[in-house]
Every structure is written in C-alpha cells, then in structure tokens.
Amino acid sequence: MHLIIPYAASHTFTGPEVWGGLELPHLQALLSQLQRQQVQQDASPTPLHLPHERLQAQALGWHSEADALPWAAWQLAQKGLTSDGPQAWMTPCHWQIGMDQVVMADPEHLRLSDDESQQLLQAMQPFLQEDGLQVRWHSALLWHVQGELLANLPTASLDRVIGQNVKHWMPEHPAARPLQRLQSEMQMLLYNHPVNDARDARRQHTVNAFWLHGAGTLPAVTPSAAPSVSATVTVPDALRASALHGDVQAWRQAWQQLDATAVADLLEHVQATGQGQLSLCSEHSAQTYTAAPASWHQRIRRLFKQPSPATALQALITA
Hints:
The chain has about 325 residues and is α+β, with helices and mostly antiparallel strands. The chain folds into 2 domains: about 1-60 and about 225-319, no CATH class; about 70-215, Alpha-Beta Plaits, CATH 3.30.70. The protein has helices at about 25-30, 50-60, 70-80, 115-130, 160, 175-190, 195-200, 225-230, 240-245, 250-275, 295-305, 310-319; strands spanning about 1-5, 35-40, 85-95, 95, 100-105, 135-140, 140-145, 210-215, 235, 275-280, 285-290. It has a 5-stranded mixed beta sheet with strand order 2-11-10-1-9, sandwiched between helices. Strands 6-7-3-8 form a 4-stranded antiparallel beta sheet. Strand 6 (about 135-140) and strand 7 form a beta hairpin. The two termini are about 25 Å apart.
C-alpha cells in the first residue's frame, strides 16, 4: 500500500499560522514507524510534471522522468475506455493578458456549464480537425483529444500552470508549433463567440484559450493494466484546491480530515502487515517513507526522536 499525498506542504504557505497547532495524530504515529528512504527534488525550475505525478508514474512502471506522461489515456483506461495512439486532455481556460506576462486563471473558477463547453467545442472542431485532432467532449473542463500531433509532445501539467505565466510552460518541442498557431486561431475565434459575449455581459471570465495536458501513448505493457497494482497506490486530491488558492485555513482543515481517513488507513495497514509506503509531496519536492525492519536500537531511537508532522512537512519546502 503506497499513499502519495500531493500538496502535503506548499510553497504558498510560509507563515507561522501554517504550522502552529496543526494536530495530525495518525501522521505522527505513522512517521514514528517508517524510515525515510527517498528524497526527490526538482532538478530544474520549470519541470513539466509535479513530484506526486512522477511518483505515481514510477509506481505504474512508467519512465517517471519522461517528458510525456500519458495520464489522459491511463485515466480513461481505468474507466474501461480504451483508445489507440497518442491522447491528451484539452481544458478550456482563461488567460489573463498583462503588459509583460500571460497568466492562466484556475479553470474551475470559470464555472463553465456543460452547454457552454459543448458550444465552444463545436465552434472549434473544424480548426482542430484540420490539424488531425479528433476531440470528444468528456466534461465541461476536460475534452479528450487524439491525433498524431500529440506523439512525443511534452505537455506541462495543468496544476503547474494555474496562476503562472504560461510562457514558462509552453512546449518548445518542434511538434508544438502547430499547437501554438492553433492557440492564436482559437483566441481570435472565441473573442466574439456568443458564449463569451454572454459571459462578458455577466462579468464572468471568458474562455480565450485551451491547455493540453496528460499527453502521450499508454505503454503496450504496463502494470496499470493489473487492478492489484493500481489499487495499491492512492493519490488523494484533498489538499489540492486549498493549496492552489492559497487558503491556509481550508488546507489545515483538509489535512486534518485526510489524517483521519487515508493516513489512518495506511497506519492500520502498516501495523497489521509491517508493510507500506508514504510519500509527502510539495510542488517541487517529495520524501518517501517506507516500513522496514528495525533493530532494537533503531526502535529505541525512533521512540525518543520521533519527527513531528510539522517538521516533516516543512522539510518539503525548505530542502
């Protein structure tokens, strides 16, 4: 059983109010029974994938440092929906255009309805098809894309780009040039679209761009095909929204709920079987703790030198 916790700490949170009085008893007990085995630190300032994504890819048997991690294909496969060839997710979004940067707003804040999303996709379809992209509506903020244009195309995770200057995350791969042209065409197409006119009249953000993410081809042979493998890895998203939005109180509350559920389950599993892994992740680092046999003097040292949850979590953003 491997529990991977994204946003266990966040570089957004730095003040004393983040850690003071944060009670996580199950995490405290778990850390006292595990040994830190692996530390992962981003090698570059703009890696395309988040540490928790790379850890999950590693658990699935993929090359975790690859530029293309095929999350779209894998997520659909988990639902029994399989398609051949390279695939990706396309998310309609709003880019805030400033004097010297273009920042992506959180797509969730669009509150885009299914009908609005479908109308926008219908208008975009002829342009997408010209570039050999077959796009199928999946949900308001997730459109499923297929096409050879996506083959070996490095794409940054959506969470990497939210609230950031998109320039840093636009792929510079030669295969991305048609997509850059397509972005420009869609900005012009969507500018006066009736959906956006209505949203503008309601003083809502318009949809003026899209983001491709999760691109790649699912490996022909992958442990993800075995339910027993994927079922042993849990990646809860309970801390994601509050971390992305910089809401300390919501993040603390979410952590306490997570401690009482997923962390408590892992603790019970470790105590019952003597096996288990915990990975705590921030936006740029991760630390993995593993259940391992301990000598008597190691057990005594753990008893008197138990790492506190706050210490373990702060290490993710100070390393």
